[in-house]
Every structure is written in C-alpha cells, then in structure tokens.
Amino acid sequence: MIPIRQRDGDFPVSTTSEASMQADSPAAKTVQGYIDETPVWQDGTNVPSAPMTRMQWWIWVLATAGKFFEGLVVFMTGVALPLIVSEFGLSAAEKGVVGAATLAGILFGASALGGLADTFGRKHMFIVEMVIFVVFLAALSVSPSYPLLVVFLFGMGLALGCDYPTAHLMISESIPSRSRGRLVLSAFGFQAVGALAGTAIGYLILANLQDVTAWRWMYATAIIPAILVIIGRFTIAGSSHWLLERGRTERAETELKRLLQRRPEYPKKIRLSAPAERQQSASRQGGLRGYRELFTGRNRRATILASLPWFLQDLGTYGIGIFTPTILAAALGHQTANPHNITAIIQNDILAAKGAALIDILLIVGIIAAVLLADRVGRIRLQVIGFVGCAIGLALAAFSQSFSGPMQMTLLVMGFMLFNFMTNMGPNAQTYLIAGEVFPTRLRGRGAGFAASFAKIGAVLTAFLFPMLLAKIGTQTLLIILVGTSLLGALITAWFRIETTGKNLEEIGG
C-alpha cells in the first residue's frame, strides 16, 4: 500500500488495518517520545521530521515577546537615561541606580517568580509575568518622582526575570529535541531585535519630540503590544512534561493532544508513561529544599556550568549594551561638552543613539549565526569560541583609546561590533539555552531561574558601577578588565562542559 501525503499535516499516513488497530491501542510513551515521534512510510523508511503544529508555533511566537520586551526596555534605557537625569536632577550614583534597577528586578524575578513555574506550572507563570510587566510599565510612563521611577523599573525587571526560565521551558518542553536549540535561540534572538527597536524608537521620539519628558513616550510604546501578548498566552497548551511529573496524567494527555493537533489527526490517541527521571525518583522537592538540590550530585556541575559563565558574560554584555551611546559619544568627541540646555542634551543623545543602533545590528547577525550553528556545532563549542571572540573585540576597543581621530573611531567601532556579534553567537545565546536544558524537569524552573538570577548579579553590578568606573579608571582600563572576564568564561565553560545538543530533555534530566 502507498502512504498518503496529506497537505495540512504534510507527512505520510499508513492506511493499513494493522496501523488502525495500533492507533486504537497505542503503546504508552513519554511526553518527549510523542513530541519527537515521526511517521514511517509503508516500506519502513523513516520520515526525517514531522512539521511543527500550529500550537507549537503559537507558543514560540508568544515566547519571543518576553525577550523582545527585555531588549526593548533595557537598551532603551541607554537612550532615555540622559533625559531622566535631566528631569530629576540625578547624581552619578542615582544614574547608576536607574541603569541597574531593571536588571536588579530580573535578578530577583528569575528565582523568586521563575522558580514558581516548578510549583504552579509553566503556563500560569507565563501569563502572570506579562500582567506584572504591563502594570509596572504603565506606571513607569507616568512616574512622578525618582524613587517611584526606580520602584517601577524594578517591578518591570521582576516580570522579565520570571520570563527567563518560563519562556525557555514553554518552548523546550513543547518542541522536538532535534530543533530545540535553534527554536529556543531564535526566540531568545528577539532580545537583540528589541535592543535595536528600543534604540530606534528612542531616536525617532527624540527627533520628533524636543522635550525632556520624551523618555516617557519611549516606554509607553510597549504597553498595547504587551496587553495583546497577555491575551494570546491564555490560549496556549500547558506543559505536559510538568503535568506528568506532578502526577496529573489525564490532564497531561489532554494538553499534549492540544499541542500535537494536526490534520490529519496524528497521533489519534495518547497514552503517557512516566519518564525515566520520575521512575527513578518520585520525590518532588519544594521551597528552599528544592534549591538546595541544585548543589548536590550531578546537579552541582550543571549549576556551575549554567551560572558562572552567564555571570561573566553579563558583565560585558550589559555594561557595553547599556552604555554604548555614552562611550561612543565621549570617546569620539561627537557631543557638546557640558550641555546646559535640553536641546544640547537631546542632540548629544541622538548622536549617541545613531552610533549605538549601527553597532546593535551585529547583535541580530550574531543570534542568526547562533540559530544556524547551535544544533550543528554544539552549545559548548560555540560558547567557548564566543567568549574568546568577545575578548578580542574588547581588546580592540581598549586598544583604540591609545589613538585619536579616525583610527580611534575605526578600532572602537570594530571592537564593539565584533563583541556584539561574538556575544550573541556565543555566550549570550548559549548560556540561556544551556541553563534551560541541563536540569531535570522537577528542578528545571528553579535551576534556570537561579542561573539567570546569578548572572544578573553581574549585570546589576556593571550597570551600577559602570558610570563611576568610567569616570574613575577610564574606558581603556575598564575594557581590559572585561577582556579578562571573557577569557575566564571560556575556561569555566570548557572545564564544566555538559553538551546537550540534540539530546532528549528526559534523558538529560535522568
């Protein structure tokens, strides 16, 4: 008999009576077993892949939003900061607090809220985080004072921190193992899209609204899109991995059926068996005891690999990312010294935003390279290569400070462009991907959340200290320090390596 190739599903379907009998009484499989399953032709030839379902793509689309909004608001802060400083009359220390507030929120939110995905479920926290984001974003756009401004930025960070583990888990627990790397990273890549969009929106608003309050409109542009994302997240299927691990087998089968709904229907019936991870250990740890488990046995190696390189990577990525406009404007001398009016401040800001936008484009190019290479080259190799490339780019930027004029500009821009490309091809992308893969299901939210929180300690320190360090030790010394942290990240990655490329999540967890 000849297999039928249906248009909507676009995969072979056997029409034999034997196949029908098997469909009526399917053998029990794990969740990932069903997700990874591909059809077989009549002569026994395996189809290399089955197409992603509409629900799988819908989950992916909605998961991109959190990373987009993070890039948008964090990198937009670099453009908005001079206006905020002018409106509220901030000191250098207060300016550092504003730059670090959102990152501090991410630090606490990744563990405090993201870890709750192991307790209350991935989908619930996926919705809650975006509601929190909208509430604080709206409040930020009308903030009447500096203290409230910091509170609202921190609140936004809480929501974005929760998104670090939950968005990753929503994707990785819903898609085939063979494409997990490129789909998780392509969603993560929207952080770079958001960074470029934040810089561009800041520039457009500054160009059309010559007022110190223009920064409020920058943040307000994200409110309506975020509300639409909330509505969409109510419609997705829940994580069957999490439901099955919690012993809710019937609900897990129902949600998996929604996830894999196709035309023609395939599979027609779903019967789940517990993965090896749950068969080996039925205990489910909660609260602080669950976090302690991250530092025992094999989980300790996973925790070190997921956390330390990410921390070192964030030192450079957020410091360079947030303050690229400031560094470019100061180093290249394209700004008015000691501006005394809002027009001069805005003109300085516009010039810096233009240079930052050009460099931010390399973030997108880098993440495209990561998407194409992660499932081919491997996570660990790309992370090591990326860290070394970041060190070279930062060294070029540091070396530029020994020159002046066109040579300085050329070396500085080349260094920052190389850094942005290498960080997104390597550690900025791979640390996020690895953190959501190396832990078992029962700890995946806590593990990924802890790694993100630990990483953001580096981001917060950088954002807070960068303005003061730039003034005290200078650009060149600061960049040389970051060269050292990048090389250290490469060494730790190689030493504690756990390669997850192409592996079944249930096998990694077991």
From TrEMBL:
Q: Where is the composition biased (Basic and acidic residues)?
A: 1-10
The species this protein belongs to is Spiribacter onubensis
**Keywords (A to Z) from UniProt:** Membrane, Transmembrane, Transmembrane helix, Transport
| Transmembrane regions listed in the UniProt entry | 57-85, 97-117, 124-142, 148-171, 183-205, 217-236, 355-374, 380-399, 411-429, 449-471, 478-498
From the UniProt entry, list the residue stretches annotated as the region Disordered: 1-26
Please give the Gene3D superfamilies that the UniProt record associates with this protein. Answer: MFS general substrate transporter like domains (1.20.1250.20)
Lineage, top-rank taxon, reads Bacteria
| Ranges for domain Major facilitator superfamily (MFS) profile | 59-501
Name this polypeptide is given = MFS transporter
Location of the protein in the cell: Membrane
Protein family = Belongs to the major facilitator superfamily. Sugar transporter (TC 2.A.1.1) family.
Write down a Pfam family by its short name. Sugar_tr
